[in-house]
Specification:
The complex is a heterodimer.
Chain A: E1 2-7, H1 11-23, E2 26-31, H2 34-43, E3 48-51, H3 60-69, E4 77-82, H4 87-95, E5 100-103, H5 108-117
Helix pairs in contact in A: 2-3
Chain B: H1 3-17, H2 26-39, H3 45-52, H4 58-69, H5 80-96, E1 102-107, H6 114-125, E2 134-141, H7 144-152, E3 154-156, H8 166-172, E4 173-176, E5 179-182, H9 184-187, E6 190-194, E7 209-212, H10 221-232, E8 240-243, E9 256-258, E10 265-268, H11 276-284, H12 292-296
Parallel strand pairs in B: 1-2, 1-7, 2-6, 7-8
Antiparallel strand pairs in B: 3-5, 4-5, 8-10, 9-10
Helix pairs in contact in B: 2-4
The chains are: A alpha/beta, B alpha/beta.
């Protein structure tokens, strides 16, 4: 079973994402900010990360930049999932090493399509 | 909705569009036609049916047919057909048409444009190999409303997130608030025409590649056989046909045969085996050889079960 780390400061979003991803046969871990997510990754790299942008303590973009510098940090497929839905944000995230990008609001089909896009499904 | 009204709608849709609705499709009628009824100021499907029976209601009747025949569509829907397009069909055609440098592609159920634009994006990605080629994509659909949307090429945030890689979104679309419009370059690669597949389409000319996905499923077998037969006559001997994931020619017609290991991809029967002379024509004749193939294309026949 593949592991997916869901990083979002909203517990509601984490819950929704968890439900969708569990249906897609992922094992889920959760973090409410980038720093906590980084701790989890240092213990064990997940296969996939669903990543919010705006979070307290450490935001998604900074987390991503740090993650990609960690040993083994190039491995997880990182799918941004954020209300930041303009071209400049998307381009910035992709340059920072994101694999795909979901603009909120999202639904089951979008998550499935994007995870399939990066070869996780 | 009474059984009588349901039967009336089924009969009407069959006659107008060939759409076959089985008894359990009542929910589909309700979900698709209630919005049409409301738009016309009618409170129920019953009221809609009553109105349709009045004289001079052709606009309303058209709206009913359109609502029932419109599919939800995704960019790169099912993925595999587009991989076949890039890995199998294009290389084969680039070789076979190296003299004419001309290729015609038909999306027979273009809907809101996602399929033709996905093909246009595939072609754009292959641009380096296609210098000097003239490639036409023709998208047809029964519904004016969806064709207008296809031409505009404007999609919601939801629509651009199903099947479209984010890099393609950045590369080929312009954002306008909550909507995304496909670039004018890609829009100019596709021509749209209104067409009912039940009616003659020989005037569209010959097509090297035909995408006819997820539309035959709505028709009964004799209609499928007729449409497949007429499509085969619009194709040169080495052309490719792509059907939807849930569709097949097997048991319907021997005009086409499935390609091994290429799911959903078909070629005219005789294209490989025993089709040497026809194939020779296809590569050896320059100018406008297309009409010559109308008679060379094999006719369909019904394979009894």
């Amino acid at each position: 079973m593949k592991n997916c780390l869901v990083v979002d400061d909203s517990s509601v979003i984490r819950k929704v994402a968890r439900r969708i991803l569990e249906d897609l046969s992922f094992e889920i871990s959760e973090a409410e900010d980038g720093l906590k997510a980084l701790d989890i990754c240092r213990k064990e790299m997940p296969e996939a990360i669903l990543l919010d942008w705006n979070m307290p303590v450490m935001d998604g973009l900074e987390f991503l930049a740090q993650l990609r510098r960690e040993p083994g940090g190039e491995k997880p497929k990182v799918v941004f999932c954020t209300t930041e839905n303009d071209v400049s944000h998307i381009a910035k995230a992709m340059r920072a090493g994101a694999d795909e990008y979901i603009m909120k609001p999202f639904d089951r089909e979008i998550v499935e399509a994007k995870f399939a896009e990066v070869g996780l499904i | 909705m009474t059984p009588n009204e349901y039967d009336y709608l089924r009969g009407y849709l069959k006659q107008q569009s060939g759409l076959v609705l089985t008894a359990e499709k009542q929910y589909l009628i309700e979900s698709r036609l209630l919005p049409v009824a409301r738009k016309a100021g009618l409170a129920s499907i019953s009221a809609l049916v009553a109105k349709m029976k009045e004289p001079g209601q052709s606009v309303l009747c058209d709206a009913v047919v359109e609502a029932m025949t419109t599919n939800e569509s995704f960019f790169f829907r099912d993925k595999t057909p587009f991989e076949h397009f890039v890995d199998t069909m294009l290389p084969s055609m680039l070789q076979a048409r190296s003299r004419e440098r001309r290729l015609r592609i038909w999306c027979a159920a273009a809907s809101t444009g996602q399929e033709p634009y996905s093909l246009a994006m595939c072609l754009k990605e292959q641009e380096a190999k296609l210098a000097g080629w003239r490639i036409e994509i023709v998208g047809t659909d029964l519904s004016n409303e969806v064709l207008e949307k296809a031409k505009a090429g404007v999609y919601s945030q939801f629509e651009v997130q199903r099947g479209l890689p984010i890099n393609h979104l950045l590369k080929y679309f312009t954002q306008n608030g909550d909507t995304w419009q496909i670039s004018s370059t890609l829009r100019s690669m596709v021509q749209y025409r209104k067409l009912n597949l039940l009616e003659a389409f020989s005037s569209l000319g010959q097509f090297d590649i035909v995408f006819c996905r997820n539309v035959l499923i709505y028709f009964d077998n004799p209609t499928k056989i007729d449409i497949l037969g007429r499509i085969s006559k619009q194709m040169p001997a080495d052309g490719f046909l792509v059907l939807g994931a849930a569709e097949t020619v097997v048991g319907l017609t021997d005009a086409f045969k499935p390609m091994t290991e290429k799911r959903g991809l078909y070629q005219l029967n005789g294209a490989a085996a025993g089709g040497g002379t026809v194939r020779g024509l296809a590569t050896g004749t320059t100018g406008a050889p297309t009409s010559a193939f109308a008679s060379a294309a094999p006719r369909f026949s019904v394979v009894p079960r």
